[in-house]
Amino acid sequence: MSNGARHGLGVVIGLVVTPVIALCLMYSTTKFMRYFQYFLTKGGDRWIAAALVLAAAVLVGVVAGSRVSPIASLIPGFVFTVIGVLWIVSPRWAFGHAGRDALPNKLYLGYTVLAPYGVFLLLGVALLVASVAPSRWKSRATAGAAPRFGGPPPAPMGPPPMHGSPAPMGAHRPPPAPGQSPAWQGAPQYGQPPAQPAASNPPPLPPAEEKPKPSGKSGPDEDNPGEWTQMYGGNR
What does pTM read for this prediction? Predict the structure, then answer.
């Protein structure tokens, strides 16, 4: 979700939860007052009041959360703060314009109890403080997102390799020179000695030694018998 769409959704949430929180608090206050004023005669009122207070607390926690747009807490925070300030600055005017004719008696009684005692001011300032965090106004990018297409490869982890050792997995390798095989083809397997690099141009073999050719002329020693013949005799 884009940042603009997130803030737009926050506006909708803020406009909805502001009257809901106010109604839950005002109606629950009236229920609590009647339960305790009439000597605990209506036991069911306290459970209804407690459920409404819990609902209001859940809504406040949702709009103040870091994953929701800060506008969702800014709108109810501003409204409740203005109401609380009016009851402090001009309580007579605020009481005269409390909406006695517009609000039902159950809501009006709760409103005239909460507002003069600063409950709306407390809640409004707390929501405003939750809205000013800079991290809530920025768009959230996934921390483990994959690099974009065409971006640089990730840097290898660990210390740099020693001189002469193969490059770690994921590291950038230069392209092989013309006439050479890729580096991964020459990598030795586990338990095998490293292969010797094949020479592209093997050195020429040395010339074979020429054997002396027999001469057609007989030397002076050809007619003399050998030592074996002289010792044991033989045909001459």
Answer: 0.56
